């Protein structure tokens, strides 16, 4: 992929970068990738972060919101793919079963890195690279974890008019549906913490980060990596800027640092529920069905069967 570095602004003070890249550890090489996923222009490309042992979660998504028949019913072209790194297999038969899944479904991208939780940043950057390299024409990239319920109708409704959502508007122009903010513009969106987020310094903590890795008391505007929307413009800028930002194992922190260097502010999604019971505090518990109805994505459904149950409840119109 050849991109001109001068097409991206990686500073806020008006000066050219001038420095050499400080990390070159992110690559865009892939062991396998489903080329058929990007044969047409897309409104939304969805990349689902997973790991090889999560087949039950992948199957749950294939049976629900990532089901091909369901995607065909949308009035905006949408495609999905799972992305992961190389697994550490204790049994060759496990690897063989996984590779059989790769062959059968043709929806899995294997990037060339070892897949561990501490390597989530590699997974995210691989996804951004893959989208630019193999999907030449998409408006938005939605990167999401494999344990998330996603309402594609709500996602598309949000992208059409993010400033007005959840109020609905078809936004038809010349007989076609269009996005209020096209992919060529700057748009980076997800759940945004309103309060300062402090680094975890306890080594036993899952999100531990040392003072050497991050020598500041708070993070910049933090967007959790569980569900993030990128316009194509922003995807390109993140890929170009990433070599100039020190690597961190925490992908959401790393992305927030890249965004800060690019002077990109996140657009908050209030209808993104990162924990199923973490409802908007401004609304009463009586409004839970309203929040579910308008939710773009929901986390905290605990198991694939519960996600499927939630999907059926939504699709049967109980929440509408």
From TrEMBL:
Domain of life where this protein originates: Eukaryota
Pfam families cross-referenced by the UniProt entry: Galactosyl_T
Compartments it resides in: Golgi apparatus membrane
Top class in the EC scheme: transferase
GO molecular function, one term: hexosyltransferase activity
E.C. number(s) listed in UniProt: 2.4.1.-
Chief place of localization: Golgi
Topological relation to the membrane, as annotated: Single-pass type II membrane protein
Gene Ontology terms: cellular component: Golgi membrane
GO annotation (BP), single: protein O-linked glycosylation
Alphabetical UniProt keywords: Glycosyltransferase, Golgi apparatus, Membrane, Signal-anchor, Transferase, Transmembrane, Transmembrane helix
UniProt-listed InterPro entries: Glyco_trans_31 (IPR002659)
Family (UniProt): Belongs to the glycosyltransferase 31 family.
Name of the molecule in the record: Hexosyltransferase
Species annotation: Allacma fusca
Lineage: Eukaryota, Metazoa, Ecdysozoa, Arthropoda, Hexapoda
């Amino acid at each position: 992929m050849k991109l001109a570095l001068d097409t991206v602004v990686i500073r806020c003070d008006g000066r050219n970068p001038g420095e050499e890249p400080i990390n070159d550890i992110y690559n865009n090489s892939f062991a396998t990738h489903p080329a058929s996923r990007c044969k047409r222009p897309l409104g939304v490309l969805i990349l689902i972060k997973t790991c090889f042992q999560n087949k039950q979660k992948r199957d749950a998504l294939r049976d629900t919101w990532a089901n091909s028949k369901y995607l065909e019913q949308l009035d905006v072209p949408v495609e999905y793919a799972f992305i992961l790194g190389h697994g550490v297999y204790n049994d060759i038969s496990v690897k063989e079963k996984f590779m059989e899944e790769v062959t059968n479904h043709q929806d899995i991208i294997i990037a060339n890195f070892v897949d561990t939780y501490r390597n989530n940043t590699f997974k995210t950057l691989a996804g951004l690279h893959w989208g630019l390299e193999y999907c030449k024409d998409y408006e938005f990239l939605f990167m999401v974890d494999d344990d998330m319920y996603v309402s594609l109708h709500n996602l598309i409704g949000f992208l059409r008019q993010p400033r007005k959502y959840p109020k609905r508007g078809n936004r038809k122009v010349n007989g076609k549906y269009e996005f209020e903010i096209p992919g060529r513009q700057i748009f980076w969106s997800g759940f945004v913490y309103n309060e300062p987020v402090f680094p975890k310094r306890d080594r036993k903590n899952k999100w531990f980060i040392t003072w050497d890795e991050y020598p500041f008391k708070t993070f910049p505007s933090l967007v959790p990596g569980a569900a993030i929307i990128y316009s194509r413009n922003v995807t390109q800028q993140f890929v170009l800027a990433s070599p100039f930002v020190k690597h961190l194992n925490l992908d959401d922190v790393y992305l927030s640092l890249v965004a800060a260097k690019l002077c990109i502010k996140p657009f908050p999604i209030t209808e993104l529920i990162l924990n199923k019971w973490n409802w908007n505090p401004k609304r009463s518990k009586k409004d839970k069905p309203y929040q579910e109805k308008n939710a773009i994505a929901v986390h905290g459904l605990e198991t694939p069967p519960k996600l499927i149950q939630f999907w059926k409840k939504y699709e049967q119109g109980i929440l509408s």
